[in-house]
C-alpha cells in the first residue's frame, strides 16, 4: 500500500488494556487553565517511569464547562486503577490545588459501559483544615476549600473507564527535519480527534524501545532495528535511504478512538509525501503476543468509516 | 387514564390526616378500596368517600381539589408520582417525603417539607412557620430534595435543616436558618431578626443585608466561583432564582456561638 509515495508497511501496532480518566480543569482564563493542566500532565510520558501517561485533550469554551469559565480537558491513563487513583490525587494536590483560580471537575459521567467513580477532590478537602464545605448540585458533590486566592472548587469524584494504551505508528524519513515535520503535521491532525492523547513531548517519541537488554538491570532498551546509525550493525528494519525514525504513541478511551487518531495522523504525515522525504510508515508490536489490541495500518487506512477519504 | 381526583365536599370540623392518600399507597387499588380508606380526624375515622368526591383512576397523578387548611399530612412519606393541590393545605405538607412532586396552588400551614429527603415541593403561595424544620423529637429538618415557595414563609424557616435546597421568593420571618446543619436556603425578599441563629453549617443566600446578631461575623466581599455552579444548577427550576447570574457576595460566617461554619451570603 502506497499513499502519496509513502509505503504503508503491512504490520500492526499492538496496544494494551489501561485504565483511563478525564478531568476538566477550568480557570479565570485559558492561560491559567493551561498552567494548571500543563503542570498536572507534566512528567507523564510513559507509565514505565512516570506511573501515568497524561495529556491535554482539548480546550473547552465557557459554555462547555460546569462553572462557565474557560477550561481544558485532561486525559490520564495508567496500567491499573490503584496507580491511576494515586497519581490523580497527587497531581491534583500539587498542580491544581496550587494553581491560581483553577478548579477541577469530573470529565466522565456517562457514555461508557462501566464507569468507576474515583476520588478527585475527595481527600484534598482536608487541606481546608475544617473550614472546607461541601455543596451538592444536580446530584454531584463539590468541595469548597478556602485558599489564599479565594476558594478552590473541586468535584468530589470523576469517572474511570477501561481504556486502551500504546497505539502507535512510526514515521520513517530521509532526514531528521523531514521526520519531525511529518510528525508535527500528524500531531496537529490528531489533536482534533476526541478521547485520545499523545503523551510524549510534543506528541512525538524518538527513543522507541524493544523488550530486554544486554544489561541485567534493564527490561527495555533502544530499538536497534530502527536506529539509523546502526544500519550496518544489526538486523535493521531500515532501507538505505532512511536517516531518521520517529514514533507517535496514542492512548485512547476506546480502541475505536485510537483507530481514528491513527488514521488522521498517518494521513497527515502522508500528505507531505515522498517528495518531502517521507518514505515509510510502520508500527511497533511485540509479535502480537502481549497486547490484546492490534491496529493493522493498512486496514485502518482502507477503512473510510474512520475519517475522510485519502487520495 | 385521568388523574385520580379527590374533591373536598365537606367543611371538616377537625383536622383530617390525609397521609394514606399518596401515589405509592394508592397504586393498583380499585376504586372501591380507595373509597373505603379511613382517614383520621381527631379521634374519629372518616371514609375517604364521605370527605371527598373521588374521580379518575391514575394514582400516580393525584389531584386534591377544593382543598382547605384542615387537610394535614398531604404526601406523607411519598416515594413517587405527583400530587397537585388546588386550595390551601394544612400542616405537615410533604412530611418525610422521599421522592416525587407536590405542587400546591394555595397556602400551606406549619412544618411543610419537614423531613423531606428527595423530590420537589413547589408552593404557589405562602407557608406558615417551621418550613423544612424538624418536628418535635426529630434532630434534623429537611434532609434533601428541593422546595420552592413563591410567596412568604413564617418563622424558623429551615430550622435544623440538614441538606437540600430551599428557595423562598418572598419574605421570611425571624430565626431563618436557625440551628441549620447544612444545605442551601435562598430568600429573595426580606428576612426577620436572628437569621442564622445557632447555625452550624450551610448557606443562607440573601439579596438584602439583614440585621445580624453579634455572633455572625463579616468575612468581607468576595467573588465565589461555586455560585456560578449553583445558579447553573437552578436553571431547570421554575423559580426566579434561576435568573440570577451573580457571584459577587458579602460573606458573613457564623453562628460563632455554635461552631460558626455556616455562611450568610448577600448578593451584591
What is the succession of H and E elements of chain B? Answer: EEHHEEHEEEEEEEEEEEHEE
Major β-sheet strand ordering of chain B: 5-1-6-8-9-10-11-12-13-14-17-16-15
Helix content of chain A: 10-25%
- Derived structural class of chain B: mainly beta
Oligomeric status of the shown chains? Answer: heterodimer
Largest β-sheet summary of chain B:
13 strands, mixed
What is the terminal-to-terminal distance of chain A? 12 Å
The number of distinct helices of chain A, counting runs of at least 4 residues, comes to 6
Q: Given the helix and strand composition of chain A, which structural class is it?
A: alpha+beta
Order of helices and strands of chain A: EEEHHEEHEEEEEEHEEEEHEEH
Task: Work out the number of β strands of chain A.
Answer: 17
Could you tell me the CATH topology label of the largest domain in chain A: Alpha-Beta Plaits
Radius of gyration of chain A: 21 Å
Domain count of chain A, please report it: 2
Architecture of the largest domain in chain A in CATH? Answer: 2-Layer Sandwich
Summarize the structure.
The complex is a heterodimer of chains A (311) and B (268). Chain A has 311 residues and is α+β, with helices and mostly antiparallel strands. Chain A has helices at 30-40, 47-50, 81-96, 176-190, 255-272, 297-302; strands spanning 2-3, 6-8, 12-26, 53-60, 71-78, 103-106, 116-119, 133-137, 140-147, 150-155, 157-173, 196-197, 209-211, 220-222, 244-252, 278-282, 293-296.
Amino acid at each position: 500500500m502506497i499513499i502519496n509515495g509513502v509505503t504503508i508497511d503491512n504490520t500492526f501496532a499492538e496496544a494494551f488494556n489501561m485504565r483511563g480518566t478525564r478531568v476538566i480543569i477550568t480557570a479565570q482564563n485559558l492561560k491559567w487553565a493551561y498552567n494548571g493542566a500543563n503542570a498536572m500532565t507534566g512528567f507523564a510520558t510513559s507509565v514505565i517511569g512516570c506511573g501515568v501517561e497524561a495529556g491535554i485533550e482539548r480546550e473547552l469554551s465557557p459554555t462547555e464547562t460546569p462553572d462557565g469559565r474557560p477550561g481544558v480537558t485532561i486525559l490520564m491513563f495508567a496500567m491499573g486503577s490503584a496507580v491511576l487513583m494515586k497519581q490523580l490525587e497527587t497531581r491534583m494536590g500539587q498542580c491544581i490545588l496550587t494553581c491560581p483560580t483553577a478548579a477541577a471537575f469530573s470529565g466522565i459521567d456517562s457514555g461508557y459501559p462501566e464507569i468507576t467513580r474515583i476520588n478527585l477532590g475527595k481527600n484534598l478537602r482536608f487541606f481546608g483544615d475544617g473550614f472546607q464545605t461541601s455543596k451538592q448540585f444536580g446530584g454531584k458533590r463539590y468541595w469548597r476549600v478556602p485558599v489564599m486566592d479565594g476558594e478552590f472548587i473541586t468535584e468530589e469524584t470523576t469517572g474511570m473507564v477501561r481504556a486502551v494504551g500504546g497505539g502507535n505508528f512510526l514515521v520513517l524519513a530521509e532526514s531528521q527535519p523531514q521526520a519531525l515535520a511529518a510528525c508535527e503535521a500528524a500531531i496537529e491532525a490528531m489533536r482534533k480527534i476526541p478521547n485520545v492523547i499523545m503523551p510524549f513531548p510534543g506528541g512525538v517519541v524518538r527513543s522507541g524501545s524493544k523488550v530486554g537488554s544486554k544489561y541485567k538491570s534493564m527490561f527495555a532498551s533502544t530499538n536497534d532495528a530502527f536506529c539509523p546509525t546502526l544500519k550496518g550493525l544489526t538486523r535493521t528494519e531500515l532501507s538505505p535511504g532512511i536517516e531518521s525514525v520517529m514514533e507517535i504513541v496514542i492512548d485512547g478511551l476506546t480502541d475505536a478512538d485510537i483507530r481514528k487518531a491513527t488514521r488522521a495522523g498517518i494521513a497527515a504525515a502522508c500528505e507531505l509525501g515522498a517528495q518531502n522525504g517521507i518514505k515509510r510508515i510502520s508500527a511497533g508490536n511485540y509479535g502480537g503476543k502481549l497486547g490484546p489490541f492490534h491496529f493493522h495500518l493498512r486496514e485502518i487506512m482502507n477503512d473510510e468509516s474512520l475519517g475522510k477519504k485519502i487520495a | 387514564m385521568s388523574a385520580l381526583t379527590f374533591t373536598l365536599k365537606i367543611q371538616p370540623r377537625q383536622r383530617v390526616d390525609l397521609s394514606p392518600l399518596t401515589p405509592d399507597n394508592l397504586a393498583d387499588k380499585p376504586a372501591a378500596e380507595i373509597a373505603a380508606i379511613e382517614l383520621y380526624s381527631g379521634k374519629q375515622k372518616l371514609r375517604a368517600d364521605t370527605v371527598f368526591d373521588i374521580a379518575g383512576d391514575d394514582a400516580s397523578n393525584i389531584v386534591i381539589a377544593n382543598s382547605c387548611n384542615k387537610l394535614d399530612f398531604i404526601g406523607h412519606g411519598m416515594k413517587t408520582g405527583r400530587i397537585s393541590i388546588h386550595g390551601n393545605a394544612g400542616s405537615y405538607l410533604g412530611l418525610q417525603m422521599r421522592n416525587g412532586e407536590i405542587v400546591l396552588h394555595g397556602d400551606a400551614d406549619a412544618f411543610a417539607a419537614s423531613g423531606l429527603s428527595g423530590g420537589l415541593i413547589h408552593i404557589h403561595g405562602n407557608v406558615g412557620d417551621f418550613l423544612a424544620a424538624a418536628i418535635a423529637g426529630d434532630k434534623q429538618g429537611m434532609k434533601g430534595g428541593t422546595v420552592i415557595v413563591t410567596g412568604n414563609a413564617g418563622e424558623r424557616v429551615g430550622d435544623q435543616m440538614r441538606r437540600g435546597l430551599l428557595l423562598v421568593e418572598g419574605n421570611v420571618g425571624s430565626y431563618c436558618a436557625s440551628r441549620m446543619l447544612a444545605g442551601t436556603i435562598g430568600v429573595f425578599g426580606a428576612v426577620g431578626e436572628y437569621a442564622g441563629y445557632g447555625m452550624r453549617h450551610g448557606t443562607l443566600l440573601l439579596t438584602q443585608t439583614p440585621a445580624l446578631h453579634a455572633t455572625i461575623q463579616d468575612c468581607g466581599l468576595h467573588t465565589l466561583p461555586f455560585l456560578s455552579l449553583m445558579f447553573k444548577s437552578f436553571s431547570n427550576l421554575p423559580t426566579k432564582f434561576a435568573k440570577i447570574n451573580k457571584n459577587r457576595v458579602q460573606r458573613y460566617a457564623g453562628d460563632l456561638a455554635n461552631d460558626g461554619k455556616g455562611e450568610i451570603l448577600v448578593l451584591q
